[in-house]
Amino acid sequence: MSDATIPPEPRGAEPAGAEPSAGAESSVSGLPGAGQSEAELTGVEPTGVEPTGVASVGVESAEVGLVGEAARLDAADGLRAKRDAFTLDDAIYLDGNSLGALPRAVPPRLADVVAREWGRLRIRSWEESGWWTAPERIGDRVGRLLGAAPGQVVVGDSTSVNVFKAVVAAVRIAQERGAHRDQILVDEATFPTDGYIAESAARMTGCTLRPVAARDVPTAVGPRTAVALVNHVDYRTGRLHDLPATTAAVQAAGALIVWDLCHSAGALPVGLDAHGVDLAVGCTYKYLNGGPGAPAYLYVARAHQPRFDSPLPGWNSHADPFGMDSAYTPADGAARGRVGTPDILSMLALEAALEVWDDVAIEDVRAKSLALTDFFLRCVEDYVPAGRVRSLTPAAHAERGSQVALRCADAGEVMAGLVRRGVIGDFRRPDVLRFGFTPLYTGFAEVERAARVLAAVLREG
Fold first, then answer.
1. Residue 434 catalytic?
2. Count of CB atoms within 10 A of residue 13's CB?
3. 86, 93, 164, 191: which one is catalytic?
4. pTM to 2 decimals?
5. Quick check: 247 and 275 in contact, CB under 8 A?
6. Is 242 noted as a catalytic residue in this protein?
């Protein structure tokens, strides 16, 4: 892609590699988003208020200031070197909330798996190459990023399959406490598959499905509630829901909670153990960069594992899988969440992708995520013609995931224009532009340029 498709940086701007100014921090903790108020950081109007556009300064002056600020922020970014661990090009990739970029460690690892482990060792690799234990081993690596101690996360199957396992098993645990628990609460704005699965689980277990707004779950739970299925981050708007308070409220009512972490794992701290979450599911191809169709994961809190009664009792979750017993006896621990033969190629690609996280603190990722989204919203406010877009993403940090959603009347055409100019995001019908910010490889200069391209596309439209 030629840089000619992207508006040039204003003359007088600091170069992208500029050194930080005196007193600048050398780590993520020095970026916006660490210990500062929303008003100090953004200058962006709250959700629902249209950006005002450039006010007292001209567009060129505003651009010069923001380009220089982006250079300083990039120079102070403690995660900046992580970008080199990914296969990227000149495009500004803001769609990592749908499919993460390819980590460089994956192709050579897969080549070895295919040529040596499969090609030469063949069936011996189930033991000699650790294939059999991969679901739990990789699950522990994912669990570290979710705040889960070892032995509680198993990798395998898809998010949809794991939602089914988690919801049905949660209902069964809840109904052990009382048969009167016959309601499943579901986030009414949930990703469609969660709703479909919850409806099927309700039919299977004799429950009724009750859709409610995620923010209303704490007040909607009652003595008939068996389980609540809630998305941690709304996939359309990027709104982050209150996991600790919602979990506590659901459990206080005697029910269990299942969290869908697809849009939070790898983007922000979750604290599954710290907040006493019952069960959780999620995918690994977004912020965890596991690749298209990468296996999902299932978290079962240690306290629930002895009572976790999977509706899919496959041979891989048997206590003695090679005993070939006709009667099912569940394995101990997280292995109860397994079903059939693990999908080894995609699972080991995921394991290689997770290596990039070995020396990364999720708190640093969160600080940079907030800084990136703050900065993007400021750039949009300064560059975009007034009234053309409106932010659906909450301004408050405590309510924001790692994406920005902008309402735009002709979102599909606008996103197509952005993609033609090398800015890759996506849109959700009918009118939402989505931009995902992956802190491990997204920089502030890219964010500024994306906002500048968006303004150009909107002006041309």
1. yes
2. 20
3. 191
4. 0.88
5. yes
6. no
Contact 445, 74 (CB under 8 A): yes
pLDDT confidence bin for 60, thresholds 50/70/90? low
Q: Are 439 and 369 spatial neighbours (Cβ–Cβ below 8 Å)?
A: yes
Query: Which of 172, 210, 286, 368 is an active site residue?
Result: 286
pLDDT in tens, 362-402: 999 999 999 999 999 999 999 999 999 999 999 999 999 99
Residue 9: the pLDDT is 55
260 is catalytic: yes
Three-class secondary structure of residue 124 per DSSP? helix
For residue 285, indicate whether it is catalytic: yes
Mean of pLDDT values over 226-247: 98
What is the pLDDT at residue 205? Answer: 97
| Dist. CA 20–CA 96, nearest whole Å | 28
Instruction: Please report the DSSP string for 294-308 in residue order.
Output: ---EEEE-GGGGGG-
Alpha helices in 129-242 (DSSP H): 134-146, 159-177, 192-205, 217-220
Catalytic residue among 77, 95, 260, 374: 260
Annotation marks residue 93 as catalytic: no
Length of the chain: 461
Contact between 443 and 83 (Cβ < 8 Å): yes
Omega into 430 within 30° of 0, i.e. cis? yes
Tokens of 251: 């459990």
Structure tokens at 275: 């907040």
List the catalytic residue out of 93, 235, 285, 376.
Answer: 285
CA torsion through residues 54, 369, 363, 302, sign: positive
Question: Is 444 within 8 Å of 459 (Cβ atoms)?
Answer: no
CA 384 to chain centre: 27
Spatial CB neighbours of 416, under 8 Å, sequence gap ≥ 6: none
Q: What is the largest CA-CA distance in the chain?
A: 77
Q: Tell how strand 390-391 and strand 403-407 pair up.
A: antiparallel
Average pLDDT over residues 130-146: 98
Q: What angle do CA 247, 251, 255 make, to 5 degrees?
A: 115
Q: What is the pLDDT of residue 61?
A: 63
Q: What is the pLDDT of residues 154-181, one digit of tens each?
A: 999 999 999 999 999 999 999 999 989 9
Q: Is the pLDDT of residue 34 over 70?
A: no
In this prediction, residues 106-135 reach a mean pLDDT of: 98
Sign of CA dihedral 132, 133, 137, 143: positive
Please check the confidence at residue 224 and state whether its pLDDT lies above 50: yes
User: Which entry of 141, 434, 449, 452 is annotated as an active-site residue?
Assistant: 434
Nearest to 451 by CA among 398, 402, 411, 404: 404
* Higher-pLDDT residue of 187, 16: 187
